């Protein structure tokens, strides 16, 4: 059976050519066609002979994603619902900004972790995405935005965040393989400083992650007390805050130059008091960290209310003034089309 070529690493492509008794530099040529020029079919590769192109086509295929629905927010954020080859659907978001453009990619169909503030968490977990399905999201958006062969300062897509549907560390191998392709400087060439993986706290995989890749790490922290985090992020029952922080300590020892982002959703009356802020500062102070406060984005059927802008200001001020930590407030983007943080769900 033919393989989707986006599932193939550079090393695997090299072996493919060596097995054909071809020179290894053919892999570089094909890689360039795929990830620098952004071809959408495996033909017309004018520096590769017809005979070799036929052999490539015998082994691999290249196909574009099919779109079930696309939405455009009034702030320019775009969201696509993609139909995969087996009919399952996932969502991908593009967030344009003044000096950058970010794609928020999904890593699973649905999610098994049922975080209570998250729309995806209400879906059943269906399956992991393959490497080609993760990369396919980026390739589609690059095609639609015509973001090929642009100079670095003209690129429309500069950042990739693994913050869409699913827990990326529960699809570890495919996510790491896709990160390696995204950050390969002979190909898509995303900077490792511009790729961020966000986890709800899969402790053993954080320890693997620190060894296997050097992209940024964000943690869906959301509560400073176990009894609250158990409800918001139920994986906390398996790996409570103390375990998670121990793993992050190990991560920091290895990745000393990296600042960990602690994401904290602001929910009225749940986790937004000064008592919460005090505990948060106490826990996070030993880390090279940044706290990203996220105003809650409601979705149909959600049980929470967003903290008021005034309460978010007070919370942030405490972290900055008393905690002397870096804290930012994430601006909601695309919330009118349910494309903002925590709102993704396909149905
Ligand atoms: S926040 Fe992330 S891990 Fe939690 S349910 Fe939503 S998609 Fe899954």
Overall description:
With 347 residues, this protein is of the alpha/beta class. It folds into 2 domains: 59 residues, DNA polymerase, domain 1 (Orthogonal Bundle), CATH 1.10.150; 272 residues, TIM Barrel. Helix content is 33%, strand content 19%. It has 10 helices and 14 strands. Strands 3-4-5-6-9-10-11-12-13-14 form a 10-stranded mixed beta sheet, with helices on one face. A two-stranded parallel ribbon has the order 1-2. The longest helix is centred in the middle third of the chain and has 14 residues. It is elongated, with a radius of gyration of 21 Å. Iron/sulfur cluster (SF4) binds next to loops.
- Under CATH, the topology of the largest domain can be stated as TIM Barrel
How do the strands of the widest beta sheet line up side by side?
A: 3-4-5-6-9-10-11-12-13-14
CATH top level of the largest domain? Alpha Beta
Q: What CATH architecture label of the largest domain applies?
A: Alpha-Beta Barrel
Low-confidence stretches: none
Sketch the major β-sheet: 10 strands, mixed
Rg, Cα atoms, Å: 21 Å
User: What ligands can be seen in this structure?
Assistant: iron/sulfur cluster
Helix content: 25-40%
- Tally of DSSP β-strands: 14
Mean pLDDT: 94
**How many domains make up the 3D coordinates?**
2
Question: How many alpha or pi helices?
Answer: 10
Distance between the termini: 30 Å
The CATH homologous superfamily name of the largest domain equals Aldolase class I
């Amino acid at each position: 059976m033919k393989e989707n070529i986006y599932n193939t690493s550079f090393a695997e492509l090299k072996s493919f050519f060596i097995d054909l008794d071809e020179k290894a530099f053919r892999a570089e040529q094909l890689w360039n066609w795929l990830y620098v020029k952004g071809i959408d079919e495996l033909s017309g590769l004018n520096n590769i002979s017809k005979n070799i192109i036929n052999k490539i086509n015998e082994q691999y295929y290249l196909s574009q994603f099919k779109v079930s629905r696309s939405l455009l927010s009034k702030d320019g954020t775009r969201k696509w619902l993609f139909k995969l080859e087996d009919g399952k659907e996932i969502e991908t978001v593009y967030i344009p900004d003044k000096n950058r453009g970010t794609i928020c990619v999904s890593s699973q169909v649905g999610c098994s972790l049922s975080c209570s503030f998250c729309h995806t968490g209400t879906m059943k977990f269906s399956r992991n995405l393959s490497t080609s399905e993760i990369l396919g999201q980026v390739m589609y958006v690059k095609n639609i935005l015509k973001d090929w062969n642009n100079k670095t300062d003209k690129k429309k897509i500069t950042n990739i965040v693994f913050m869409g549907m699913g827990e990326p560390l529960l699809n570890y191998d495919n996510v790491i393989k896709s990160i390696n392709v995204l950050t390969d400087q002979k190909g898509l060439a995303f900077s490792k400083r511009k790729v961020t993986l966000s986890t709800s706290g899969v402790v053993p995989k954080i320890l693997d992650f620190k060894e296997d890749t050097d992209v940024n790490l964000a943690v869906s922290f959301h509560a400073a007390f176990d009894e609250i985090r158990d409800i918001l992020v139920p994986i906390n029952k398996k790996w409570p805050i103390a375990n998670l922080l121990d793993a992050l300590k190990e991560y920091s020892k290895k990745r000393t130059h990296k600042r960990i982002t602690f994401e904290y959703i602001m929910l009225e009356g749940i986790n937004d008091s000064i008592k919460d802020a005090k505990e948060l500062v106490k826990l996070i102070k030993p880390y090279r960290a940044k706290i990203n406060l996220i105003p809650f984005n409601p979705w149909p059927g959600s049980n929470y209310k967003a903290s008021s802008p005034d309460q978010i200001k007070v919370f942030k001020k405490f972290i900055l003034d008393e905690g002397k930590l870096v804290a930012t407030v994430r601006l909601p983007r695309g919330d009118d089309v349910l494309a903002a943080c925590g709102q993704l769900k396909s149905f």
